[in-house]
Amino acid sequence: MKNQQRETFSSGLAVFFATLGSAVGLGNIWKFPYMIGANGGAAFLLIYFLCVLFVGLPIMVSEFYIGRKTRKNVIGAMKQLKPNSAWKSIGVFGIITAYLIMFFYTCVAGWVYFYVFKAIKGDFSGVTVESSKAMFGAAVVGPISPIIWQIIVLTVVSAILIMGVQKGIEKVTKTLMPVLFLLIIICDIRALMLPGSSEGLKFLFKVDFSMLTKQSILMALGLAFFKLSLGMGTMVTYGSYFTKDNNLINTSVKVALSDTLVSVLAGIAIFPAVFAFNMKPGAGPGLLFMTIPLVFSKIPFGNILLVLFFILTSIAATTAMMSILEVLIAYFTEEKGLSRKKAVIFNAIFIAVIGVLASLSADSSSILGNIKIFGKGFFDLFDFVSSNILMPIGGLLIAVFMGYMVKKDEIRHELSNHGTLNIDWAINLYYFILRYIAPVLLIIVFLNSIGILKF
Ligand code: PFF
């Protein structure tokens, strides 16, 4: 199995869209816009940029390096770079994190698919605050329908992945990412035409440093991780499919900037409408599933907009899930010798079975809503352990590994594409941030997120 012919993406553009497809996800559409608004608008955006620059980018470049240099899955890659060492744990953490995220992400994605279906059926015409809440409650508490939609989501993602890297991931992301951009722009234009939309823009873009707290800095750092799919080997896996002439630093910068742009555009689509109807912007699923149908249903042609909005959200969620599942597929095909098809089916079934726990515990009135482990239901536990514990640990280990275990000459050689790119300054900057800034910031966030260090 060792040196089998491995697929790669076919071009730089394919690399860009696939990677952006991983970064853009549910995070952009409900987490990011709300956080900008609640934490001082553009002031938060500035902090987020700094987090991306000082932590996100160096880790992304490192993951691409590890992937493309070894052309292996995340465990295989670490074994190749440091045989028989504990560094393999980066890969092991990655695999565990991929499962945990998939368990709950497929559940939320299931609600999104369901909402596309409901919007197409016209279920939201004449919706009121009460009925919108009731509909979301019914969609989440189920119990059968959320599980069925979760299985539909997994079937779609699996069908794409079975087709392979070029015919599956590359083709779908190259087609759908431009569609996603177009749909967001349409929603933006409509939202900006609403009377009173300037209030929403003010919420999003005010520069209010007084609203920034230490907590917002930590939130921005955590968000940068989740947003850019870092710390769990996703970018190692995609990096292993990159073309050999790809400029890894350049790709990282382009992906981080485009991903942030999508988040801001999503905010522009959402907040003017929320404010035009005098609603309070709420966080998380509430905003996405209860508020959006309500506000869009009041706009002329709002139902079409609603369908488009949920379609774009489901595209974002689907391409993100493809990248998470690919971490597992690459591992099972290369290390365990499974065929691609078997690896996909086996993992999809496993995720569906355990993911049911997330679906049945998403709300306190769900069937398993009252079962608590360490004070959290299954849904919240999967989310918390993956985003707040494993991803930062993974990121820290990657930063320390690359900064202190790999020779700078080797890094320079790979990042400059064997000396063909003249980007010494960028490599030096990357290396400095990687060694001296990223690990320190990560330790602070991690200690805070598990409650050891309190601000
Ligand atoms: N970046 C995705 C989002 O913002 O929704 C989430 C994600 C995708 C996290 C892939 C981790 C990952 F490996």
TrEMBL record:
Assigned GO CC terms: membrane
Q: Which GO terms describe its molecular function?
A: symporter activity
Residue ranges annotated as transmembrane are 12-30, 42-66, 87-114, 134-163, 175-197, 217-239, 260-279, 299-332, 344-362, 389-406, 427-453
Q: Where in the cell is it found?
A: Membrane
Cite the Pfam families for this sequence. Answer: SNF
Keywords attached to this Swiss-Prot or TrEMBL record, sorted alphabetically, are: Membrane, Symport, Transmembrane, Transmembrane helix, Transport
Q: Which organism is this entry from?
A: Clostridium magnum DSM 2767
What InterPro entries would the database entry show?
Na/ntran_symport, SNS_sf, YocR/YhdH-like
Give the family this protein belongs to, as stated in its UniProt record: Belongs to the sodium:neurotransmitter symporter (SNF) (TC 2.A.22) family.
What this protein is called in its record is Transporter
Q: Which domain of life is it from?
A: Bacteria
Does the keyword section mention Manganese? no
Q: Respond yes or no to whether keyword Membrane is given for this record.
A: yes
| Protein topology in the membrane | Multi-pass membrane protein
